[in-house]
Structures are given as C-alpha cells and as structure tokens.
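Q: I'm writing a short methods note and want an example of a predicted protein-small molecule complex. Could you take the sequence and the SMILES for adenosine-5'-triphosphate and return the bound structure as tokens? Please keep the output block clean; save any remarks for afterwards.
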Amino acid sequence: MIQKLRTLYEKSVIYRVFVKKYKRYFLFGTLSLIAVDIINIFPPLIIKKTIDILPNETDLTRIATLAGLFLLVSLCQGVCRYLWRMFFIGTSFRCDYDLRLAFFEHIETLSQKFFQKYKTGDLMSRATNDIGAVRMAVGPGLLIGLDAVFYFFVIPPIIISLSPRLSFYTFLLMPLTPFIAYTIKNIIDRRFRAVQENFSRISEKVQENISGIRVVKSFNMSRQEESRFLGLGTDFVKKNLKLAIPQSLLGPTFEYITYMGIIILLFIGGKMVIGGIITLGTLVAFQRYIAMMVWPMTAIGWCLSLLQRGKASMKRIDEVLAERPEIVAANIDRRQGISDGNIEFRDVHFRYDSQKEWVLRGIHLTIAAGQRVAIVGPIGSGKSTLVNMIPRIIPADNRSIFIDGVDINAIDIKLLRRHIGFVPQDTFLFSERITDNILFGTETAGDDDASRQFARFAGIENEIEELPHKFESYLGERGINLSGGQKQRLTIARALAVNPSVIILDDCLSAVDARVEDTIIKNILRHFSGKTLIVVTHRLPAIRGFDLLVVMKDGMIVERGTHKQLIAAHGLYTSLYTKEALEERLD
Ligand SMILES: Nc1ncnc2c1ncn2[C@@H]1O[C@H](COP(=O)(O)OP(=O)(O)OP(=O)(O)O)[C@@H](O)[C@H]1O
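A: Understood, no commentary inside the block.
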C-alpha cells in the first residue's frame, strides 16, 4: 500500500515538475504555509476572549492589549503569506521554464516521422496552453490545495475542543464533500481534455491559414476557410461551456455545504448559549472558524479543477516527451566524423509507414569522395527519399549506408549533419536578418563579409546588395519577402556556409532559370572542389559534365554512367534528356 502511494506520488505532476527539482523551495513554502495557518487560529480566540471579558470589564487596558495582539498576529500573517506565495507561485514560473525548455529540446531531437504525426498547431497548443495549465497546477493549484488541507487539520480540532457537541452537528454534512469532489473532478478531466484537443485543432487551422495564406487567397477560399474556422470556434465555445458547468458547480456546492453548517450552528449554538452550555464568545469564535472553513471548501473545488487540468495537460505533454527519435544506433562513436566524403549505399530498401509499396528497392551505389554525382529520374522515382537518408532525415537500416566506411547510424547525428550541407526541396528561412539566415549553421553569426561570400557562390549577392538594408534586411513576417528563386538560393548559401564535406542539393533550383542554375553549379564546383557533390534535378543539361549520372525509376537505379555513356545507351536517360532539351528550346 505504502509502495503504491509512493509510486503514485512520484508519478504525480506536482512531484515530477515541482518537488523533485525544487525540494528546498517546496519545504520553505510549506513551512510558511503552516505558519500562516497556525497564526490563523489566534484571531477568533482573541475575539472570543474579548467578548467573554467585556460584560465584567471596566479597565480598557486588557482590551487594548488584546487589540495590540490582534495587530501583531495580522502582521505576522501578512509576512508569512507573502513568503508562502513567493515560494509557490514564483517557483511555478521556474517549473514552467524547465518544462518548456525540455519540451522544445525534445522536439528538436525528433525525426521527420514525428512531425508527420503531430501537426504544428497541435504542438504549439501543447507548448503553450498545456504547459500553462501545468504551471497553474503546480503553482496556485498546489498552494491552494496545501492551504485547504492544513485548514482541515488545524481548525476542526480547535472547534471540537470548544464544544464537541456543537462540532458534531455542524460537521454533519461534511462526509458528502469527498464524494462530490471525486465525481465532479472526473467530469472536469474528461471535458478539459476535449477542450484542449479542440484548441489544438484551432491552432492548427490558424497556423495553416497564416502559412498558406497565398494558396487560400489564390483559390478564393477565404470565405470557406472562415466558415471552417467559425465551425471550430463554435465547437470550442460549446465545449468550454460544457466544461464551465462542473467547474462552476464545484465552488458553490462546497460553499453550500459549509453554509448549511452555519445554519445548524446558529440554531443549535443559539440554543446552547441560551441554556448556558457555552458562552457567547465561544459561539462567535465557532462561527468565525466555520466561516474560515468556507475558504478551504471552496478552495478544494478550485484546486481539484486546477490539478485535474494540469494532470490532463501533463498527459498531452508526456505523449510528446515519450516520442523517441526513430534512429537509435547501438554503438555510436562520438569521435567518428566524416573525413573524405565517400558514400556507399548497400542494398538499401525503404518504404514509408503509410505505404505498402517499397519506395527504394535494393539500391547499390558508391560515390567516391570529391565526385560530382547527379540523381535524375521521373517524378516519384525515389530520388529525394534516397538523398534524405544521407543526413538521416529519413532513417536508414543499420549497415545499409556508409560514409567513409562507417555505418551512418553509428556516427553521432550532430557530427554527421555538421559535415553535410543539405538543401531540401522545400525552402525554409527564419524571420531573421539575411546574414543570420546564411550563417545559421555556423558559429560566425552576424558577420556580413562571411555571409556575402556564400551569397556570391549561390548567385544572390547582387540582389541582396540592392535591398535597402542589404545583408541586414529582415526576412518574412517582420521584413521583406523574397521570390521563390531567391529563397532557394539563400538556402543554398546557408548550406555552403557550414563548409561541408558533402553537399546535397535536392531539386532546389527549380525556381531559377537555367543560366542562373548553371552559374551556381559552376561556382560550387570551383569553390568546393574536392567536396562530394550530389545533385537531384530534373534539369539535365545543367549536370552534363558531372562525373556520374544515376538514373532512377520505381525505386531502383536503372542506368548509371557519364552523360556520354548514357546518351550512347539510348535508354531512359536519353529520352528524358531529349524531352528536356526540346522543352528548353520551346521556352
Ligand atoms: N512522407 C511521405 N509519406 C509517404 N509517402 C511518401 C512520402 N514522401 C514521399 N513519398 C512517396 O515516395 C515516393 C518517392 O518519393 P520521392 O519524393 O523520393 O520521389 P522523387 O523521385 O524525389 O520525386 P520528385 O522528382 O517529384 O521530387 C513517391 O511515391 C511519394 O509519393
């Protein structure tokens, strides 16, 4: 039993988020709280004493002494109350910080599969709303709860010592409290989870509509999107109203039970004063103590609601924290980096979770260090999947891909990625200065000269120089918006800036014209000679001079060789090349 309680405690939100790390603050907070609650006992006793001596008192000195005592007690109460709030509420903000940091750091380690499972809006809502609910539970929830519990321990014994008989009648209705609390708490839990899930959907909708605003507008879908949002909003209101019912019922129900106690007290207590069984001072003190019990009764309801919300939110945060990065290698050698950039694919197979079909089927390919390789083929043939496996954005089976003879799963992922300059198909830039975007992966943030050099290699230096604030210009929401081609070239500059051993360009020049593409590839070949270069492209003329062209179809390599060799073979490459050359002539 004790072991079970201990496990429950160790699993509780309060222990995990607050007590485990901030034991000392918890201890000091609890001590100040006990002090406040003990001090609280005295004012009614001072009043009782004053009322009881009043009828026979002629000298005001004793009354003045009692008034002075009352003042002193209130002062001590104020100081302890301040300390107790600082220890609990102040620390709850530290817990909020810790949890948010842990959540963010954890998300950063997760692989692509996780981000396909959870939508951005949902994650945003967990990182903000849910963490906020946990803070409310470990701050105000814990504070109110402990306060209420101490009141329950401290006040009833005093009341009983004043008059056991009167206490029995006034506490008659109390056993109802835990039963009502438990029932309402369960209803709150269920409804709060539904509200949070709905909030996630709203966040998703807002996020998608903001990032996809151009698509929404160009398809004239603003009205439809508005009505979908309205639907979600209405649902959110309904769910919140449903949640508000048990939450609003909690406080009044407990207050009502306490007030019933006061009615009984006035009736039976009044009779006892008339009968001379208790003094008038005792009845007044009794009433003060019962009135003091209204707070913990109400507070218990509020506290349960906050704790319940915190528990439900922690469950949603735990769901994310329980996600593991897909690639967990058994023997990671932390010193093992990439020296030359030889890459070998050994019988690589892959299929996405949602698919039955294999996307890659038995890929064997060796790319020598410093080689310039292009991967071409029809759409959906598996080119992007293959190159995404090199920096482990898509997981590879153990011992299927090797860099410089080492299984990529055995290389520390940070080290692996530091040596690979990867430019994905989808461009993403931060709402920061251009220079910060270019130097994102380096340690020389803010150095315009360094970023200018890489912008030049990526063929975008002149366009940046024409901007009013040049390399200092802010991008995105807070600054300028770039064209698709400009964004693509900035992402190339960013990849080159890390001085990688392997450069991978995944069809990232689709929005620039053939002449600019040619220039960029030539720049890379000139300034990064000796580095391994892998380019996925549909523009075949740009990669004619490459050392090796790999042609993929249906997840397999169907042809490989130089441009000359492949043209001579009259296979798939020849037909793709002829089609591309014809299209370029027509353009
Ligand atoms: N995240 C994903 N989940 C499920 N299937 C996917 C995913 N990404 C790609 N696929 C599927 O895998 C196959 C190969 O896709 P991949 O993007 O590797 O091809 P590709 O040759 O690079 O195509 P493209 O030239 O259009 O970029 C396609 O059938 C695609 O639908």
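A: Remarks, as requested: The CA atoms of residues 271 and 277 lie 9 Å apart. The pocket of adenosine-5'-triphosphate is lined by residues 116, 352, 354-355, 359, 377, 379-385, 507 (CB under 6 Å).
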